[in-house]
Amino acid sequence: MKIQNRLTLLFSFLFGIILFGFIVGVYQFYSNRSREDYFQRLHLKAALKVDLIDGETIAPDVLHAFYENIPPNYEPQVTIYGEDGRLIYRDKKNALPEKEYRDLLPRIHKSGPCCVWHEDKQIYGFAIEGYKTNYIVFATGKDVRGEEQLQTLKMVFAVAYLIVMLFIVLTVRLLTKQAFRPVARMTAQVKDITHSNQLNIRLDEGNRKDELAGLAITFNRMIAQLEKAFNAQKQFVYNISHELRTPLSAIITELELSQNKPNSKKEDYEAVVDLVLKDARRLAKLSNNLLDMAKTNYSPTEIAMHEIRLDELLIDVCHKIRKSSPGYTVQLIFDKTDIEDDRLISVKGNEYLLSVALGNLIDNGCKFSPDRTCEVHISYENQTIIIRVIDQGIGISEKDMESIFTPFFRGENQSFAEGNGIGLSLTHKIIQMHQGEIHVTSQPGETLFTVKLSNLR
């Protein structure tokens, strides 16, 4: 069931209960007042007959004759007893047996006036003082007019209840429809986005103050992030295709040239093999970087984390770089040598990913320095390990500084050294995965990368 229909039923049900309770209360109040008024009339008419009999103004036979032609439904029947229980007067048309009244005499003597029902008639009994003696009087009657008024009131209330409930249902339906109109409009806009696959469409944010506006704002932010992610994915696929196409085209070209020259010298074949091997290594490096980048998209719970000493990790990384690139010179400098606790220089992380991140920074530092040399400083302050990688390269322009951590971005210095634009973005994601920070400052002749990671202290 739709929320709009559910709210309509809920509010109508609540209003219906409240209205029904109000009507029942009013009806009960009016019924009680009608009964009290009728008992008061019974009391007055019965007291009148007592006065006539007590003062001997009218004889009982005359009184019988006077009330004989009055319908019993409109004139109450009166029975009068003396204080000693002796029957003094009784209307001839009284349909109730005398025993019904005598059974009530002890109750009136003990508790005073009483009001009881006998079938559809009301009996009101009370004691009254006369001139000569005291009397116990019973007035019996049926409030025909009062019952007719109550029946009429029931019908009026029933019709009014139905009319008011119909009005309430229609009103609540109209209000909920009006209240959910922005939701319906928002749903239609979302369907348009879904069917058209156009992530540049945004929801109407209205007044930007109510809850629906907050939902629209949140949805628009999500769509903006999705649009950015899809655009990045498209650009990513384009960049990969470009990076793969260049070395593959070079390999195919070199092999075709060699195939067309069957009588080439051994030196020519060796040169072709060197070129093909160079391009193949470039493809292998690109493939490895892509695999490493895919790992950074894993959930932290899916990656093995354990305690790592960063100084030992840096020594191992520098050794591998020197071995793979004999022309590179890496100067590893420990700014603090008096390490009292291994935890000061240790982090919890993934050894392979951290070695990839730091290796990329050191490799770039050597690659972009004219003398293929860079400095690596490691120190700690309080609960933070600080690693600084310094090179003496041509520097990074202010324009490029904003995008150096973007995948496949190649700056103005791309002609200075080869690369695929993945290294720094991969490093940035790995450091973020380890809850760390990476900053860069650059000027002509020097570039400084600073990495901060929390230690285990």
TrEMBL record:
Q: Which SUPFAM superfamilies does this one have?
A: ATPase domain of HSP90 chaperone/DNA topoisomerase II/histidine kinase (SSF55874), HAMP domain-like (SSF158472), Homodimeric domain of signal transducing histidine kinase (SSF47384)
Catalytic reaction(s) noted: ATP + protein L-histidine = ADP + protein N-phospho-L-histidine
Task: Provide the alphabetized UniProt keywords.
Answer: Kinase, Membrane, Phosphoprotein, Transferase, Transmembrane, Transmembrane helix, Two-component regulatory system
Q: What is its main location?
A: membrane
- Give every HAMP domain span: 177-231
Please tell me which top-level EC class this enzyme sits in. Answer: transferase
Entry annotated with the keyword Transmembrane: yes
What Gene Ontology cellular component terms go with this record? plasma membrane
The residue ranges of the Histidine kinase domain are 239-457
TM region positions: 7-30, 155-176
Under which EC number(s) is this enzyme classified? 2.7.13.3
Location of the protein in the cell: Membrane
| PROSITE patterns documented for this protein | HAMP, HIS_KIN
The source's superkingdom equals Bacteria
Q: Which GO terms describe its molecular function?
A: phosphorelay sensor kinase activity
Known PANTHER family for this protein?
Answer: SENSOR HISTIDINE KINASE TRCS, SENSOR HISTIDINE KINASE YKOH
- Protein's name in the database: histidine kinase
Lineage of this protein's species? Bacteria, Pseudomonadati, Bacteroidota, Bacteroidia, Bacteroidales
